Fold this protein.
Amino acid sequence: MASSLTTRLAVGLLFAVFANQPSYSKTQTVKILVMGDSISAEYGLKRGTGWVALLESRMAESVNWNEKPKASSKNAQNATNIIAPQAINTPPTGQNSIKLLPNFSIVNASISGETTAGGRSRLAALLTLHKPSHVIIELGANDALRGLPVAAAQSNLNAMTQMALQSGAKVLIVGMQIPPNYGQDYTQQFSAVFGNVVKANQSAKTKTNNAVALVPFMLKGVADSPEYLKLFQADRIHPTESAQLQILNNVWVVLLKQLN
């Protein structure tokens, strides 16, 4: 009797554990398409040092940690040598790791100077070509720098979100803010655009599966840092290499919920 009860409890426990895991199959590939501007295109940075490259490293570390927790000491040493530059990216904890994610790829389709209109015109073809499971949209800053109508930027971002959702992808909108010298009304209207797009595309279904999410401010901890002068290039617009990890962290905390 006791043995039978123990067996049933063990089976129940295993069921509960696996029932709460994401539904990735061993053959499924998570593909992230990044639609961004110069901040995501590594403007002024060494190749491979921008936040998108750091995202790829972080996901690889998370996958390796979950898939290979008992690596030999020799392999572990080799892995440490390979990922040493990004060693601080991902503490090996459940809070920061991706569960049961067998493989992934990232397509960075970001272009320096890109506007929401440009992103909108390119997205359909990229969705068809790459068939992403997740789309990160980091656009709008160049619209503001050019003083383009806020309503047009919101319309373009809304159209991109709907295209991505209709293709079956989850969407992460990355919010941006602009300096107050653009005028209080324009600044406030622009800042509200990103949240408006998320709200407009949230339904009972998208809320349940976290299909549309928002990073409130991409440069949080950078533009508002007491050391912000050290975190921007000479143009005071583009973040330096030392700011990329903070940018990644701002995106990661929201993206991780969509991945898990």
